[in-house]
Protein 1
Amino acid sequence: EPRVFSGIQPTGIPHLGNYLGALQSWVHLQERYHTVLYSIVDLHSITVPQDPGTLRQSVLDMAACLLACGISPAQSCIFQQSQVAEHAELAWILSCLTSMPRLRHLPQWKVKSQRQNNEGSVGLFTYPVLQAADILLYRATHVPVGDDQVQHLELTQDTARLFNRLYGDFFPIPKAIMGTSKKIRSLRDPSSKMSKSDPHKLATVRLTDSPEEIVMKFRKAVTDFTSEVTYDPEGRPGVSNLVAIHSAVTGLSAEEIVGRSRGMETAQYKLAVAEAVIQKLRPIREEMHRLQKDRGYLQGVLRQGAQRAKEMAAPVYDSVCRLVGFR
Ligand code: ATP
Ligand code: MG
């Protein structure tokens, strides 16, 4: 029986990259699959320092955001990772199957430990192992992820294969499902991806940004010295990122976008992209503001989600314990 699992960190309001790379496909998948789990992965979020009050609020904001994007608690199990203790328990077992060199070259570790003067925590280093546990704990078969998570998912696949070889065929090997767009890049630095935890305020367009903020961020987006719209991600990453965003929010191909923008100066084009983004995000933003006022409802959704997730996780973890020799 196919099962879908994915997660998002409560590290702030999601941005366009999260939406186009992941959340949008999450909505479609709940129509196509019977069992779908979406986790607000708070255990992952503390791999970098978090303020407790902010974290508590971010979990509720994320729940509101998932619902506002169209994820339905009737079709999907929406839950907070830390409420299902088996995630951390399985992660321990899997960490004993994973070698240090296997983790050292993964992109997340490099980027986020650099932000902390190369003094990242042990948790940040082993984060992909917890991610493997998240997926395998539900014996998930399909994992919708953005471009930036492909290498992490490969680790999950390797870990599942190794476990199966050592202890008997137990975990399905999960497949990646990619979002509608490739990696969306930072508006300030097209060499890095758009990230919730990017300290630069103008780098990300959040799903709750006002039209004025969106215009301002696109106006200040870093491009290059050629004032012409072309799509060349290698040579012109800044402008090409704008085209990629424009293409993803309108459904037109990059070629069509470039064709229609012939003769436009970059400054003018930025406003056209901003306008398309504003249209796309308007309903999400409005619904999000409505839901944020109803904390009781959000807490109820998370409580029920955690209960269902726990019911699925417990028997899998119990089998793992038997296979490993704990029972
Ligand atoms: P953080 O900076 O806290 O890691 P993030 O923006 O990277 O936040 P995550 O919660 O780590 O977001 O990831 C949630 C989902 O969004 C994942 O499936 C990830 O692949 C996807 N995603 C994140 N950033 C991008 C991006 N720039 N483009 C496309 N998909 C993305
Ligand atoms: Mg991330």
Note: Residues 195 surround magnesium ion (ligand 2) (CB under 6 Å).
Protein 2
Amino acid sequence: MEKKASHFSGQLGFVLAAAGSAVGVGNLWRFPYLAAKDGGGLFLIVYLALVLTFGFTLLVSDIAIGRRTKQSAVGAYTQMHPRWKFLGVLTFLVPVLIMTYYAVIGGWVTKYAIIYLTGASEAAAADNYFTGFITSPVSPVIYALIFMGVTALIVYNGVQDGIEAVSKWMMPVLLVLVAVIAVYSLTLQHTDESGQFRTGLEGLQYYLTPHVEGLTVSRFLQILLDAMSQLFFSLSVSMGIMITYGSYVKPDVNLNRSVSQIELFDTGVALLAGAMIIPAVYVFSGVEGMSAGPSLMFVSLPKVFAAMGKAGVFIGLLFFVAAMFATLTSCISVLESITANCMEVLHTDRKKTVVTLSVIYLAASAVIALGYSLFYFEVSLPNGSTGQLLDVMDYISNSVMMPFISLLSTILIGWVTTPAFVIEEMESSGHPFRRKKIYVVMIRYIAPVMMFILFLQSTGILS
Ligand code: PFF
């Protein structure tokens, strides 16, 4: 099969593609928000500790399973234990769901990049601009279809000529853009109407200082859970994506070093995103101005860019281009994972599979893009929030399925195949698996308990 011939050219290609999947809107619109909300430096410390233990465990597991079985989720879990095929199918369903809405978000980002490119950014800072845009029945659909089409084209070109080729230049450029904006943010200063003078450096200090005043046990637990759910969404684990990417890694690649580099890239961009967004928002509206998700990216930030004056048009453009690269490389990984599973299960070739999936997902993206106009409805979700069509898909995939899948996969690896299944693969290239002890303790004991608590919390059972 063509799939068997698919490989990343080497470690660098693999790391940048995997980092491309990991670095997405989660780094840009959720990490800074959580850091500002959850005690600045305190959140950072908790998050970093989790990256090195918990995130590391899940990432190692997915990638090693992929390379060892040379299959995507469905085939991989079946090969690990035939009775656990259901877990493969469940894992496969996560990108299937995510794919319905990711291109819609990509479309929004593209629209904003174009607004800043054409110098129409003043309008974007107006109060109801974003709502006006997404509730239109035409424009968001067109942008979603364009974004979906570009994603499909890249995946159609294959692992090395499509995914790797794109990630290899987009990811370094993204890193530079985020770093440049972060440095600029730190130089900002502003006096608001009430005469309050604020600087970017004060904002940075707020971001980095661990705020432990009045910390209670239950608040700490909340911070821990926030950091944990952010972490595994951010690393794209437990959704089969890293299994698929792992299956394309050549046998001589050092997986230990690759995993460390992917963690470093993803966490580095998250930290820089905080350093670029928190000081900027702080200077112009105080940290109370921080919100999460689309409203941070498409409502608050355009106002911040507008407040920067002329420079804001340029900074805004750099920001939305970076966001576009982040979203595109993530979207590619979602479609690739679905494609690879279909190719293996149905024994079809890449080109036919991608074309068929494109038709399905162009239609699905259009439906979701119309979720704020034609198909508008509101539901209350079990975790207490209210959502529309896109939020429902997001909630099922990220809050319900991902923790549940993680929980089951830690049990499968920890107790059924035993951790040796993963450890042997980590050592198969002849390099030592340095964090082996932590891995075993995490996968057998700590991760299952943490995943269970996270599952109860995000489904609203524990509240
Ligand atoms: N890891 C991405 C982020 O942090 O934004 C999000 C993501 C990418 C989620 C790919 C799911 C996915 F399949």
Note: The chain has one domain: 2-458.
